Amino acid sequence: MTTHEPREPERSDVFIALPDIDEETKRRLHDRLVREAQTAGLLDVAYRTIDSPVGPLLLAATAKGLVRVAYGCEDHEKVLERLARDLSPRILHAPARLDAAAKEIDEYFAGLRQGFDLPVDFSLARGFRRLVLTRLRAVSYGQTASYAAIAVAVGNPKAVRAVGTACATNPIPVVVPCHRVVRSDGSIGQYVGGVDAKKTLLTMEARPAD
Amino acid sequence: MSTILPPFEEIVITYGPTVLRVCRAVLGSMDADDAWSETFLAALRAYPTLRPGSNVEAWLVTIAHRKAIDQTRARARRPLPVDPLPERPAPSGEDRRDGDLWAVMKALPFKQRVAVAYHYVAGMPYADVAALIGGSQDAARRAAADGIAALRKTYGEGGLR
Fold it and tell me: Structure pTM?
């Protein structure tokens, strides 16, 4: 006898009343998975979100270091999807792995820190863009530089637009200070986190230290 | 259909509860945590090679099934402890009915238990259940029906209480 398989198998009434798995159990199992994945070297990308004066920030790290900081306007879900595509889909929410990064960024926003000591991973930027980002780390807290000046500094004075693109696609904003790059005429220019966020950061950095 | 794999975190959030319930139905609450953890760690290892658009739930249940067989064999080799193992701290009230389920499930033969778990708890069609546990589709259907009948005799028609 042939019987047609229902597309949606019926769930027996015996199981209808099964309760949801409670949150505490989910958390415990998730924590254990993160721990075992890390021990086994399978946690390629760890991430968490933190609150900041410029909105929620997504932080993601590889074994090499901080690989991504993303503003809310970049859509964190999409950012994670792109990380899965560009780096590895072995991605887990693992806040503890980013404790050090979160602490330094918190201190920065509290005005207690002017530079970052955390290791960064430039895997998401290649070639000229990576060169620009590396150079940006030399623009210190409270200072600004023009797109043109950065182009000169990386040995390609005509590449002003490319410097702009490198800043606009900076995978690690805040920590790699593309917000300190402004237009030659003194106007603020664009920013990956929006112009308001850029103003907030520059205003904060311009405040005299207590 | 998506051509890229979503972050593994999404897989854990979406399918973790169902896989845990399947592990509990097949192995009981005591061993379910270990089986779940082994399943998701193995899945994480193999994940980058999974074809995008695959049936992720069936893939996870397949891995869980292998872990369940491993655990069942390991337990069969282990001599029975003289004293019963101490119970784990009772799960919170919400979870208690899962424990009741297992109390009845464990009286079923392994084949009925997995057939019931994969079809009724995981929602897999009998063709997939048969491919996973071996034997024909009809045999899988019979095993699940016999298992459900035994469960219903214990629980009555009103579901678990």
Answer: 0.87
**Residue B128 · residue B136 · CB < 8 Å:** no
- Ordered structural domains, chain B, with CATH: 8-155 (1.20.140)
Nearest-Cα distance to chain A for B27, in Å, is 16
**CATH match for A25-109 among 3.40.390, 2.40.160, 1.10.3210, 3.30.160:** 3.30.160
Q: What is the pLDDT of residue B155?
A: 67
Shortest Cα distance from B4 to chain A (angstroms)?
6
Residues 16-75 of A with CB under 8 A from B: 16-22, 24-26, 28-30, 32-33, 36-37, 40, 42, 45, 47
Cβ–Cβ of B98/A18 closer than 8 Å? yes
**Fold assignment, A127-206:** Arc Repressor Mutant, subunit A (1.10.10)
What's the pLDDT band for B94 if we cut at 50, 70, 90?
Answer: very low
Pick the catalytic residue from A178, A181, A192, A201. Answer: A178
User: Quick check: B125 and A5 CB within 8 A?
Assistant: yes
Per-residue pLDDT tens digits for B13-50: 999 999 999 999 999 888 899 999 999 999 999 999 99
Assign A69 to helix, strand or coil. Answer: strand
ipTM score for this prediction: 0.89
Residues B151/B105, Cβ–Cβ less than 8 Å:
yes
A167 given a catalytic annotation: no
Beta strand pairing call for A66-71 and A57-61:
antiparallel
Q: How many other CB atoms sit within 10 Å of the CB of residue B40?
A: 28
